[in-house]
């Protein structure tokens, strides 16, 4: 291949790498006045994320209530609602705007709800469920301390 072709190929690869970095790692972010990273979303995208958040809170409440009654079937159901399967509804255009740290924590949180559902069904041990809830909620607290959502 000619030198120019190699040069062009290199430039192209750099563009692809920069694009991948932007979409996969960095996301659409901006600094904010309260030290959290602000994620820039459209109004509809912000509503979608916040709806998912209220679902998280609802499940936390339902799990706590079911655990008080020692109803492990209801614990499993409430946890499963917000497991990994619930993530399928997030469009790729929105995923591309989320920074890596946010995606990682979000993905992990859905996974922890799935694990909790499985353990509630298979072990049926309330103390274990409460321990899992406490650990899972570290994710809620951690992410809220680091990120906020603002509209474009
Ligand atoms: C991956 C990051 C992340 C995780 C994990 C996370 N949240 Fe959030 N949550 C956010 C962000 C960002 C906001 C918007 C905060 C802002 O803009 O000030 C939010 C907002 C909320 C809101 C407000 C919803 C509204 O309508 O305004 C609730 C309730 C909430 N989260 C509950 C939870 C609960 C419960 C958990 C854990 C089970 C959780 N979140 C886990 C990032 C996260």
How would you portray this structure in words?
- With 152 residues, the protein is mostly helical.
- It has a single domain, classed as Four Helix Bundle (Hemerythrin (Met), subunit A), CATH 1.20.120.
- It is built from 6 helices and 3 strands.
- It has helices at 3-26, 43-68, 72-81, 92-95, 100-122, 126-146; strands at 29-31, 37-41, 147-151.
- It has a 3-stranded mixed β-sheet.
- α2 (43-68) packs antiparallel against α3, α2 packs antiparallel against α6 (126-146) and α5 (100-122) runs antiparallel to α6 (126-146).
- It is elongated and about 70 Å long.
- The model has no long low-confidence stretch (mean pLDDT 93).
Topology:
Elements (H helix, E strand, L loop, with lengths): L2 H24 L2 E3 L5 E5 L1 H26 L3 H10 L10 H4 L4 H23 L3 H21 E5 L1
Parallel strand pairs: 2-3
Antiparallel strand pairs: 1-2
Helix pairs in contact: 2-3, 2-6, 3-5, 5-6
Bound molecules: heme C.
Give descriptors for this structure.
152 residues, mainly alpha, Four Helix Bundle (Hemerythrin (Met), subunit A), binds heme C
Quick rundown:
With 152 residues, the chain is mostly helical.
List the helices and strands in order: HEEHHHHHE
CATH class: Mainly Alpha
Helix content range = over 70%
Strand neighbour order, sheet with most strands: 1-2-3
Count of DSSP helices? 6
Content of β-strand:
5-15%
Counted beta strands: 3
